[in-house]
């Protein structure tokens, strides 16, 4: 099924100017076209349309894959009274003495929190099988890194980084060649507001044509 995703602004992430009323045509898992909504809708009248508030932008890579998924525990909501809601690391993490099952559950929750920040890839070597499985099942790409990034680990890939630094790759041109339809939607009016407010403004995340996060 063809689906057109459109928003008030489409930011490609490269030198092309932002496109007001821009849209992405998704065919299965791939991006079939990028351009003005009116043109794509006229060319594909049977396509389903998803209208989003804010802007569409490239998906982001979180540079703290091991730190957030293998060196931190994401509490279950049922544990909030005892453990709180924020990731647990350091000595407090050691005291939990987690087994593989809890590591896997933690990683799944951590991945969901990443998806809610427009993350479509994680960087860094992952070694726990339960964590690797959680990442792969969610469809997140895994990227290498040459050194540990500076700064405290953050779920927000835009913390201290620009969109150009945080995105996986620009959106395809208006004549794509089989590139996966992977992008995010943020509830902000423009790129400046996205940089200022961060990826916590994510409204939706699409990985290979699949809507993997949608803000309720």
Can you lay out the helices and strands and say which pair or pack?
Layout: E1 2-6, E2 9-10, E3 19-20, E4 22-27, E5 30-36, H1 37-43, E6 48-51, E7 55-58, E8 60-62, H2 65-69, H3 80-83, H4 90-96, H5 100-115, E9 119-123, H6 129-138, E10 141-143, H7 163-166, E11 183-186, H8 191-197, E12 202-207, E13 210-214
Parallel strand pairs: 1-6, 2-7, 8-9, 9-10
Antiparallel strand pairs: 1-4, 2-3, 4-5, 7-11, 11-12, 12-13
Helix pairs in contact: 5-6
What's this, in brief?
By secondary structure, the protein is an alpha/beta fold. The protein has helices spanning 37-43, 65-69, 80-83, 90-96, 100-115, 129-138, 163-166, 191-197, and strands spanning 2-6, 9-10, 19-20, 22-27, 30-36, 48-51, 55-58, 60-62, 119-123, 141-143, 183-186, 202-207, 210-214.
Architecture of the largest domain in CATH? Roll
Oligomer: single chain
Helix content: 25-40%
**Overall radius of gyration:** 18 Å
Rough outline: elongated
- List the secondary-structure elements in sequence, H or E: EEEEEHEEEHHHHEHEHEHEE
User: In CATH's first tier, which class of the largest domain applies?
Assistant: Mainly Beta
Strand order in the largest sheet? 3-2-7-11-12-13
CATH superfamily (homologous) name of the largest domain: Urease, subunit C, domain 1
Uncertain runs are: none
Could you tell me the number of beta strands?
13
- The CATH topology of the largest domain is given as Urease, subunit C, domain 1
Number of helices: 8
Commentary on this structure:
- Helix 5 runs parallel beside helix 6 (129-138).
- 28% of the residues lie in helices and 26% in strands.
- The longest helix has 16 residues, at 100-115.
- The chain contains eight helices and 13 strands.
- The chain has two domains: 2-59 and 168-214, Urease, subunit C, domain 1 (Roll), CATH 2.30.40; 62-143, no CATH class.
- The mean pLDDT is 93.
- The chain has a six-stranded mixed sheet, with no helix packed on it. Strands 5-4-1-6 form a four-stranded mixed sheet.
